[in-house]
Amino acid sequence: MASVSANRSNGLQDAKARVLHVENVALDNQKLRDIETVALVVTEPKADFKLQPIILDEIRDDEVLVEMKYSGHTDIVLQQGLLPMVEFPAVFGHEGAGFVRGIGSKVGNKSLSVGDAVLLSFNTCGTCRPCSNGHPAFCHTHAAVNHNAVRLTDRSTPARAKDGQSVRSQYFGHSSFAKMSVVNEKCVVKCDYPDQMGIYAPIGCGFQTGAGTVLNVLRPGHDDSLVVFGLGSVGLTALMAAKHMGVGQIIAVDIVREKLQMATELGATDAINSEEQSNIVESIKKVSKSGAGATFAIDCTGVLRVIEDMVACLAPQGTAAVVGVPPPDAKISIDPLMFLLDNKKLIGVIEGDSNPQIFIPQLIELHQKGAFPIEKLCRTYPVERLEDAIHDLHTGKLLRSPEDFLPFLAFAREAADDSCSKPQFAYVRRRLSEMYDNCVEWLEHGMEPNIILLEALQDERTVLYSHNRTQAKLHPGRGNAMDTPNQLANFPLRFISLLDGDVILPTGFPAPVYAKEVSKLSKAGGYDELTDTNRQYSTGKLSDAPSPTHDFLDSNFTLVEIAAFLKHFTKSWDVADRIIWNGATSEDLPLPFNKHRGLDPQIHPNSVYMMFRGQMRKRTDPEYGYEEWETWTVNPQAKVNKSAGFDAHSINITGFRRPVGFKDKPDEPAARTPFKDLANGVAVWPEDGDALDLTRCVRWCVDHPEEEFHYLTDYQAVFERAGGPLNPDACHSDGSALTRLLSDTGRSSQRRRAAKDYRYGKVDSDEASDATELAKRKRATSSRTQRAKRR
User: Fold this and answer.
1) Does one domain contain both 554 and 700?
2) Confidence band (pLDDT; 50, 70, 90) for 409?
3) Of 87, 504, 509, 777, which cross-links 396 as Cys (Cβ 3.0–4.6 Å)?
């Protein structure tokens, strides 16, 4: 039924997919009212685009009925509900292209006829001062007439659902994500090349924004230098326009090598990867013709740091144009004295300050003459792959589908196995294998490939960093002998990503720096001698914990209470099942110990993992029926079918077994453990959702040292004095506890938590994507800071 053409080079700053292609649909008896059609409707914020029937009202005198053939800009920001003026349900999409199927009686363009091919651009009021003076992009009602998705005159909408509910359907004056759209006449531009509408549809917004900023606003000359920050569709069309004007020097700046390569092919004289520069401003000044900086600059990213760098890289009397859309309420920092002394200018530009009726035909003619090669920026998708188009553009062309990702993942697994084949690297090989298994499971649950890749890349960092740091401590004086071999080969996902031209790593993902970080621990001949012993990194630090010969009570204990007061009870198979089946990874297992026991140095994840492994592998005895766990790891445990009646929200420990090796030992003398001694070694007491009956009992005994009570025999007596049982709720569950621990420690970012929550069905993919974006920005900032310190 349809296809989507997408701007291949669009980056994170251009969260848009391009071009819905719809087959021609004839109107029954040329009716121009109560037209039944279909559209991609978003029913509420963060909901998916769903193709469903809608009904269009009769077109008004100043409107045109257009049968869409192509559409662009799926408007993810709007879909997410991030703009307050947007209401739902709604049909989005702009940069449309199609054929005229009906014309209102008072449409001003008398040359327009039914059957004409048209391109669609932004809407205007047509009467304010900017509109009257030839600058409609700066219409006083620009936001209202374009983003409210309703008619300006009476705030009505031309579309409704079959149940009669209104559907907002005039986004940018036309809402082109539909087979049929009622369009305001000011949006309509005739196209004399109907066979090339798939290429020309994006001119209506993105392409004219980049090109117009250069041709209409900045107008650089042969002796000027122009810097373009961000090489998405807007940046590359700005570069094309500069090339057409014969600008003496065009400097392209981005962090993706494929985009920089394309910029060079399109006419950039210099290409700079900002991720590889310690000071991007100085790098630009160094390559500039004058040595003092650029005379013109354009930011197409909307990233605040980039805008500040853009202003700083200008030569005296230079002009910088902000084209990318920054976050709402964002602020930048600029030295006003520098502005005064250097006579610099900072301006904002919308839609390239273009008049679409004049400028779009001009750009089409440039393309026809070969001076505006926009066909290199387009890709076509069927409409059923709309989400793939969104993902490709959202990530700068990442992975298109699970089918593309699985062979990619298999190759990475093989590379990891080959490079970690020696016994001393078994831990790395096992952890990477566990991570790859997680990726496959996430795919099976419908998780987005781009989120999976981010999670996997971060896990590779964690695994290798953990291994190298551990070897540095456990094998002093051995230099790099115990390092993971061949650092590059052991980043298989990242390594393959860099080799595969169709895979571009997301913005902000830091480069591998582990060899440098580990070398900080080394002297010239090897690693520093460490005075502490291996034991202080192990679970031996829990030696003050009560013996696991105690029985479990008929009570509700939170995960944190067990870790804080009854540490060795985590060795119980039942406790392990509960924690892991509720979402804990091997990286999560030490968190409650390290936080609530105040351990310094902290227990390493591998130590807790080994503690669990020793217990769990004892289940391979035929007596217990888990022979397949001979090579137990956390990930296979998570995949084992849960016991009948397992409740992820239950924290009841009734009937739990003691750890193996203690299950048949008598309770004495351990059963006489003073109740208040359970608090020994507790640095941070459980509170709020982590605290329940056991916390109150221990606290009561600590506050009443004159009373002599013992765990386990006097539990009921203490229980009554502490106020009786509390009713557990969702905040006491293991999943909630893990979320709080990850947030408190800061070890895992919001992206990591979101990916895990998505895996266990706690959030949807859009929320995971939001957290991913936020975490990438934070990680990019952290990476830059670390690199600056190393230099």
Assistant:
1) yes
2) low
3) 504
